[in-house]
Design goal:
Number of strands of chain B: 12
Strand order of the largest sheet of chain B: 6-7-8-3-9-10
Radius of gyration of chain B: 19 Å
Order of helices and strands of chain B: EEEHEEHEHHHEHEHEEHHEEH
Helix content of chain B: 25-40%
Structural class of chain A: mainly alpha
Low-confidence stretches of chain B: none
Strand content of chain A: under 5%
Strand order of the largest sheet of chain A: 1-2
Largest interface: A-B, 34 and 43 residues
Oligomer: heterodimer
Shape of chain B: globular
Shape of chain A: globular
Distance between the termini of chain A: 16 Å
Number of helices of chain A: 15
């Protein structure tokens, strides 16, 4: 008698194990959907460019597209302004989501996000110093603020590791606490610096902290792309290990996992990736926590699929959010973090509620 | 018979208090050894030391002639699978996914499950009577099903030695019996060595070849169930009176707790 009931309950359950076939199917579909969405995003901005023209310009036949009212060629708007920004948004969103996935498993904390380790605080302090002292040179396509932020993030990583490590092990609770405390100290320092600075610098820093994706040209993007792919690739290489970590550290070791070396790889990879992402884009909230959850609810917890899927969805999500941020009140811009929180929060609630209905049957 | 475990003069503590003191134990291949003793007598620590999850302050734990401390986790896991006392799974993995994680040590690099992995997992799921719930998530399972899922994960590891920490604590009598029957079957048919911690002295008595009775971090007595489970031993170790007779079929010691109407002196003390 309860057979049909059970069947009903589990009829829409995901396949119980991940197969190569399902992996490829899911990833290919996600990539196609993502590319379509990204192309649609390119239409919007202060000036609307028709989708057909977007495609034509991207295929290198931009000359056919006629100039419009503003006198600026759509091909320049698209290739010089919108495309680099879209790529940056995608890279940042993908990194944040992938880091979130890895840290939630490493710290055994479903609320973990890329900013939990305190690395972002270091990057922010670096940025604050650069703004305060008016450093203004650029290096390899990156501004001084970005370089300072990244270097400060690197130092913070070393400090946090030194605090957390004992006997060559990283106890997760200590790591978490070290992150929280370092974040608090760094925030205080940032406030201190801000209080010393004039209103222009303070305002600049304030906007930097809120996160912006209008910051990088193609030279910087190239380097960042390689860096991000490497980082996400390293995390992806630990996918099976992340699965085992969710059993707990001792059971994972009992099953043959070299727990401490896996933790070290994940800590340093996540931390270095966080440092770079915060350095180029500031603090963009919600993506790193919401996307892992949403993707896990839909595709299941196996990190071999979860990690790349979250990266693709995270990248696409941030690209959409940034498109909305710069189009909604064009020509003025909203901070993208406002959009990610306003879209991400309710979407998360929707997922929670609809899942709960399912499980009640 | 070949020794698979040899613990010599092991001292272990977490903090101040010694958990195991000058502890020595040998386990031969193909044995079923039950570790019994009161709460806090060091049973769980002993199992973790044997699995290389903890390291002794002094003395040595030899696994197949090699110091466990000198082996890395994959090397240990190929010989030994451990079933912990309690298990929490962070994310909503299904039973099948969980059991497949037991295959980790047999997989190369960033691999997909091989046909062999799938076969081992299916067998473990069958043995633990989990087919009905194989596609449910760990969080949806009852306490007993969770415990069986964790045991199945260890079985899928297909190690020659199984360490189990109170494998039947949450199980109903049918599943208690199934676990012990499965362990005995694996032991008899495949020569798997089983070392288990149990508070259920009767099941341990019926199914173990040998019992190790722990008392305050030392071996109080070791031997066949009939040698170990005596009224005097249990009085000293547990500090309580029991009635011991024989199992009506197999003749192993059977422990019955007395009925006491009022707070007895040995409780008041």
């Amino acid at each position: 008698m309860d057979v049909p009931l059970q069947a009903g309950l589990h009829a829409d359950a995901r396949d119980s194990i991940l197969t190569v076939r399902r992996w490829w199917k899911t990833i290919v579909v996600l990539v196609i959907v993502s590319l379509i969405v990204l192309a649609l995003c390119l239409q919007y901005g202060t000036e609307r460019i028709a989708l057909a023209d977007v495609v034509r310009i991207l295929l290198g036949r931009g000359a056919d597209v006629t100039s419009n009212a503003s006198g600026v060629s759509p091909s320049i708007i698209l290739l010089e302004v919108r495309l680099p920004r879209l790529i940056l948004a995608f890279l940042v969103g993908a990194s944040l989501a992938a880091i979130g996935v890895a840290l939630q498993a490493l710290l055994r904390n479903p609320l973990a996000d890329p900013y939990i380790l305190g690395i972002s605080g270091g990057a922010a302090l670096g940025a604050a110093l650069a703004v305060q002292f008016g450093v203004s040179w650029a290096m390899g396509g990156f501004s001084a603020v970005q370089v300072f932020a990244f270097l400060a993030a690197g130092l913070t990583i070393l400090v946090i590791y030194r605090i957390a490590v004992s006997d060559g092990r990283i106890p997760v609770q200590t790591l978490l606490l070290a992150g929280v405390i370092i974040n608090a100290i760094l925030s205080a320092l940032i406030l201190f610096i801000t209080s010393l600075s004039d209103s222009t610098s303070a305002f600049r820093l304030f906007f930097w902290l809120m996160g912006s994706l209008a910051t990088l040209g193609y030279a910087g993007l190239g380097a960042l792309t390689v860096y991000v792919l490497l980082g996400i690739g390293l995390l992806f290489g630990q996918a099976r290990q992340l699965n085992l970590l969710s059993l707990g550290e001792e059971p994972a070791q009992g099953a043959g996992l070299q727990v401490e070396s896996v933790k070290r790889v994940i800590f340093f990879t996540s931390a270095l990736l966080t440092g770079a992402v915060v350095a180029v884009s500031g603090l963009i909230g919600f993506v790193g926590m919401i996307v892992p959850h949403g993707v896990r609810m839909v595709f299941g917890p196996d990190h071999r699929l979860l990690l790349p899927a979250a990266a693709i969805v995270g990248g696409t999500f941030l690209a959409i959010a940034d498109t909305v941020a710069r189009s909604l009140l064009a020509p003025s811009e909203l901070p993208v973090g406002v959009i990610t929180a306003l879209c991400g929060g309710p979407f998360f609630i929707y997922l929670l509620v609809s899942r709960r209905k399912d499980s009640i049957g | 018979m070949d020794l698979c475990y040899q613990l010599a003069d092991v001292w272990f503590r977490y903090a101040e208090r010694w958990i195991l003191q000058d502890f020595s134990l040998e386990v031969s291949q193909g044995e079923i050894v039950g570790v019994v003793g009161p709460n806090g007598s060091g049973k769980t620590s002993l199992l973790k030391l044997m699995a290389g999850l903890l390291h002794p302050q002094a003395g040595v734990v030899n696994l197949n002639g090699e110091d466990v401390g000198s082996l890395d986790p994959p090397q240990v896991a190929r010989c030994v699978a451990i079933v912990p006392q309690e298990s929490q799974v962070l994310f909503p993995f299904t039973v099948r996914e969980l059991v497949l994680m037991g295959r980790f040590v047999h997989q190369r690099g960033w691999g997909w499950e091989s046909a062999e992995d799938l076969r081992a997992a299916r067998l473990a799921i069958q043995l633990m009577d989990l087919e009905q719930v194989a596609n449910r998530t760990f969080q949806e399972l009852s306490g007993g099903e969770r415990q069986r899922a964790i045991i199945a994960r260890a079985l899928a590891q297909q190690s020659r030695i199984l360490l189990l920490d109170e494998p039947t604590a949450f199980l109903d009598i049918k599943h208690q019996l199934e676990i012990y029957a499965t362990l005995r079957g694996l032991n008899r048919d495949q020569g798997v060595t089983v070392i288990l911690v149990s508070h259920d002295l009767n099941l341990a008595s019926q199914y173990c070849h040998r019992l190790v009775l722990l008392h305050e971090g030392r071996v109080f007595h070791m031997g066949t169930p009939a040698e170990v489970l005596t009224v005097e031993h249990l009085r000293t170790v547990y500090g309580c009176e029991v009635i011991i007779d024989r199992h009506p079929i197999v003749g192993t010691p059977r422990i019955t707790l007395p009925v006491i109407e009022q707070c007895p002196q040995w409780i008041a003390r």
